[in-house]
Amino acid sequence: MTKEIPKERGIDHTFSLLTEGYNYVGKRMSGMDTDIFETRLLGKKMIIMTGRDAAELFYDETKFKREGALPLRVQKTLFGVGGIQTMDGQKHKIRKAMFMSLMSDERLGLFRTIVKEEWDRKGHEMERKGEAVLFDESEELILRAICRWTGVPLTDVESWNRAYDIGSLIDAAGGVGKRFRVGEDARPRTEAWLEEVILAVREGRLETDPESAAHVVAFHQESGEYLDAHMAALELLNVIRPAVAVARFVVFAALALHDFPEWKEKLNTQKDLNNFANEVRRFYPFTPFLGAIAKKDFEWHGYEFNEGETVLMDFHGVNRDPRLWEEPEQFNPDRFNDFTDDRFTFIPQGGGDPNHGHRCPGEPVTVIIIEESIRFLVNGLEYNVPQQDLMINMVRMPTLPASRFVMDRIKVKED
Ligand code: HEM
What we know:
By secondary structure, this protein is α+β, with helices and mostly antiparallel strands. The chain contains 15 helices and 12 strands. A hairpin with a 2-residue loop joins β5 and β6. The longest helix has 25 residues. The chain is globular. The structure holds protoporphyrin IX containing FE.
């Protein structure tokens, strides 16, 4: 006997999603006492699921595909049209292997060194300014670091504008009106910049480390051919853009140090730093949900799914699910001391195995940026957090503290 999927009544609920943001899904799950419900968003029937088992189902490639799942508005801003996020099967695996090959221990070690150097530089720059907005500074710092690591030239003159453009791609994904248009405008400009880099690498005008992303992506082959230069630029941007997005986690980490200062004393080992970074990724809101399309009819937990249906997986809810996390509303890095990862419980950047499915390949890069930012904010810098509006608006997606974390009386600590 199959069960009926609970339904949200009404013609379309896009407005509710826009006005409730991150709370939209959780409110309905608890209101209907369910892990799954059907609604209509953007004029389309959608099934929304939460919980660990739902995450496992979502990553079952025999049941779901990504082609056609991403709204064009998200492709025109955040991801680009037709990149890895929309690929399936063998083609996806080949493209994904390219991204995974960038993440060797040696390359990640180099990235950590670069991030440390960039924080040293940024610390002095912020000291000279006296007052700084951490979110903006972090976006620019990360862009510098990721460009050095990927082999993409970036001059001092362009770094702030490029960082602003890339930031606007991320911000536009959940926005309407001007917010959307600013991101939509920035995408062709940013892709053109990287397309020129790809061509310069291919033509030998730009020398790059053979293991850097600019080189790997430029010379990556599928069916014996290089990627079209525009697609290569889009995929290179798929390394650079999400790294810049980590600025949100840097700000959340600073907010955690501000709101829960007792943890500063407990950051003695690398493991402590890693726990703190993971708790930042679990506790603060970032990716709300993501879509896939049923490849065939099937039954799961007594519910019927039909071929062609769009399913949204609630990432945000799983990271705060009280069945999976003790006191999920508490900020407690120590919970990661004895955490055993089953790949579907802690999913700030997707679930499953990144080598096979769509899980984010950039988790080590993300964690390095957060860890080194915490290390610098605690050990490398003295600063004051003046009165400001640090509220996290849960309606805005993606969100961050309203003031973007202003700091003043900034001074680099002497060794
Ligand atoms: C703020 C930090 C980040 C967040 C919240 C994040 C989140 C995500 C999420 C939710 C996905 C989709 C998973 C899925 O489709 O099932 C994803 C995919 C992806 N991420 Fe990240 N990510 C971050 C940082 C990074 C970094 C630093 C990189 C690269 C260095 C990166 C590269 C990618 C790529 C290429 C994909 C597509 C993977 C695929 O479709 O197979 N991300 N990320």
